[in-house]
Amino acid sequence: MSTIKLPAASGGGSISIKGPSSSGSDVDLLDTSGNLNLEDNKKLVVGTGDDLQIFHETDNNTSRINSTTGTIELRHTVSSADEAMAKFVPNGAVELFHNGTKKLETKSYGVKVEGDLWLDDDKIIKVGSGGDLQIKHDGTHSYISNTTASGNLFVDMPESAKFECQHDGEASFAGYADNRFEAMFDGSRKFYTSSGGITVAGSVNTEDLNLSNLNSATPNEVDNTKGSWSMQEGANDLFLINRTNGKKYKFNLTEVT
Asked: Is residue 159 pLDDT above 80, yes or no?
């Protein structure tokens, strides 16, 4: 049986609160230091319906704060400020706050972050069971890596959407779903694809010029044949090489002034 002993009227002393222990003897529940002592599996119970329970469970060696009815909320109250720090909703979300503003919330589908997500340099965001997709910044450069040797990295977009790489609003290249690809120089388009092939704005600098329709579904329009040719330049002449039979030809050039 728990007992409360009051000090004698004639002199000092302190209040002693005792209760039975697991061994059967009385122990101090409230010691001289003001500590409330409860044995393992004994609960501090608060609320008319025993709604809040605090105890240490020996089976799992776990300390528990248990709410039998509603949300558990950690708050910070200073002067006129009364701010939530964390909320734990039964069968629902865990919410974390900064200065009274919610910043992270668990959802049935995962986690929702309110605001920016910061990682230090060389720290990696990993996605996939094996951490196959990785995103990081090393202090100078940024990387998007697919670490699976047999896998690909896809950027999947809805129809007519645009994927663009840019700096300060100036694009370097852009891709349009089910449409064209564009490459720029200093913000000016220099190359783009179309259903008919490619279009180049400006000069084309190349070494050999290789022409072939061997893999084309249709032959040429002149003699209805297919072939493969290379154009090469010499110091004073231009040459053609027939890659099918190996024959070589020289252009007859006329100098003009």
From this structure: yes
Q: What DSSP designation does 218 have?
A: S
Which residues 6+ apart lie within 8 Å of 6 measured at CB? 15
Residue 97 identity (one-letter amino acid): F
CA pair distance 208, 191, nearest whole angstrom: 19
What ranges do the domains of the chain cover?
70-117, 121-148, 155-205, 206-257
Alpha carbons 47 and 126: distance in angstroms, whole number: 45
Which of 43, 45, 107, 100 is closest to 75 using CA atoms?
100
Q: How far apart are CA 189 and CA 180, in angstroms?
A: 12
Q: What is the pTM of this model?
A: 0.61
Residues 6+ apart with CB under 8 A from 206: none
What does the longest C-alpha to C-alpha distance in the chain come to? 133
d(CA 46, CA 32): 23
3-state helix, strand, coil in the chain (%, to 5): 0, 45, 55
Mind listing the pLDDT tens digit for each residue in 16-45?
566 666 666 666 666 666 677 778 888 888
pLDDT, tens only, 78-133:
777 889 999 999 999 999 999 989 999 999 999 999 999 999 999 999 999 999 99
Half-sphere exposure in the Cβ direction for 190 (13 Å, CA): 13
pLDDT digits (tens, 9 = 90+) for 171-219: 999 999 889 999 999 989 999 999 989 999 999 999 999 999 999 999 9
User: Alpha helices, DSSP H only, in 61-156?
Assistant: none
Is residue 160 within 8 A of residue 176, CB to CB? The reply is: yes
CB neighbourhood size of 96 (10 A): 16
